[in-house]
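Page 42, continued from yesterday. The earlier attempt failed because a stray header line got pasted into the input along with the sequence. Redoing it now with the clean sequence only.
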Amino acid sequence: MGLGLFSKTILCFTLVFVASSQCFASPDDDDEKPSAYEVLSSYNFPIGILPKGVLDYQLDSSTGKFSAFLNGSCSFSLEGSYQLKYKPTIKGNISKGKLGSLEGVSVKLFFMWIDIVEVSRSGDNLEFSVGITGAGFPIDNFEECPQCGCGLNCDGLQVSKIRTNPFVSSN
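This time it went through. Structure tokens are written below.
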């Protein structure tokens, strides 16, 4: 990737939450593929389930297998309640309203890091499963992409509030 394209890509990911149409490839540009955030939207997911800075992704649309690539590990806290950690590569299977067999995303519960294995959309809520339990959150919590290191509270400015539900439901 040349420096000009790299700079354009970084600008895209920085501005993606304001949906600037200048960041997206035009339909006649065969060299450009949709961003990872655009692909999430096409599967009925909000862009904010991925942090800012996804460099690239692979998607086999016939099977739904995907990989998303970050420039290193990424962690942040949301509202001081949840600590999330993303590995440099996130993998799984995607279909309309469901991300399954997830690898590379974990949440800190009490004193342990537990893998998030599935995310599903149910109406205006997202359900996150860690295997034996899960939690639901309103979809509007994920309109903006968190930033590695500071989440949604960067530069001391509160970007948005996360309405939380404890991990209490059983699967």
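Notes: The chain has one domain: 3-170.
Reminder to self: strip header lines before submitting.
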